[in-house]
Amino acid sequence: MKTKKIGLFLLAFLLVLATAACGSKNAQTTGQGTPSGETSSAGGGEPKQLKDVKVVLDWTPNTNHTGLYVAKEKGYYEEEGLNVDIVQPGAGGAEAMVASGKVPFGVSVQENVTQARTQGVPLVSIAAVIQHNTSGFAAPVDRNIKRPKDFEGKTYGGWGSPVEKAVIDSIMDIDKADVSKLKIVNMGEADYFTAVKRDIDFAWIFYGWTGIEAELRKEPLDMLYVKDFSDKLDYYTPVLVTNEKQIKEDPELVKAFMRATSKGYQFAIEHPEDAANVLIKAVPELDKDLVMASQKWLSPKYQDDAKRWGEQKEQVWKGYSDWMYEHKLLDKPLDVENAFTNDFLPQQ
């Protein structure tokens, strides 16, 4: 949820395709994780063998991920016979690790799944972590950016991604603004708060993390949520993903993982302060005040107006993929039906 790169992973994906056949054979044993063979004697019966499972994050731990940490801390995964290890992404990103079968589950975003699938990479989204897009363009209030037309004469800090450039062009066009009057620079790994004091006027952030941090810093922002400019930009970010091979060969593992994960996010929805404390305990280097404030803001947004946490709608996948195709971000339209599934969400 921290400001992050929203870009193309196609090179990594194509490399993954070349190695997927051999990589998938080691799906449960590749990399560093908890030792296999852990047991549990919960309930007083004979020790139960737990299945080692990894889930890879999309970024450093934050409140987008709280439900995963809750499910681990509260024993929901163990109840399903799983010993879950939450790991950081490698150089190729979470998508590459999941697509290759190196890990069975990961955190991604709808645009990356869309780009991957149109290139033949077998990622499948199995849950929307947050029901509506909470990202947008943020600027300190002294820059007086209230609408896209106010981007004129300003400097945007980004990462050179075709997606972000297309979104900026699109919303400026809606506001009849001249995109040639906007300067775009690469802010690299610079912290948002450092960058806006140094050489940029605004950047793309997730409000639930960077925006909340700005509130705590008493540095007010003007926030332009991208979803407010087009229904097609109200896409799912982040999502939980697996790959087609995992679904085909071990659907029961996917069901078990999602039963426990759903319980974790439901707990976070109902008990944001307790859930925040779970995340703080698991990742003590995080700012406690930021985690608590972010969790209180985000917990109601996990499910929002959906009938259950994680629910995904075909119209959301089609709307955003159509938008990407219209803006030449995809080589071909997305086969929406196979890009996501609600089949592994627990029935209410």
From TrEMBL:
<feature type="signal peptide">
    <location>
        <begin position="1"/>
        <end position="20"/>
    </location>
</feature>
<feature type="domain" description="SsuA/THI5-like">
    <location>
        <begin position="62"/>
        <end position="275"/>
    </location>
</feature>
<dbReference type="InterPro" id="IPR027939">
    <property type="entry name" value="NMT1/THI5"/>
</dbReference>
<keyword id="KW-0732">Signal</keyword>
<feature type="region of interest" description="Disordered">
    <location>
        <begin position="26"/>
        <end position="47"/>
    </location>
</feature>
<feature type="compositionally biased region" description="Polar residues">
    <location>
        <begin position="26"/>
        <end position="41"/>
    </location>
</feature>
<dbReference type="Pfam" id="PF09084">
    <property type="entry name" value="NMT1"/>
</dbReference>
<dbReference type="InterPro" id="IPR015168">
    <property type="entry name" value="SsuA/THI5"/>
</dbReference>
<protein>
    <submittedName>
        <fullName>ABC transporter substrate-binding protein</fullName>
    </submittedName>
</protein>
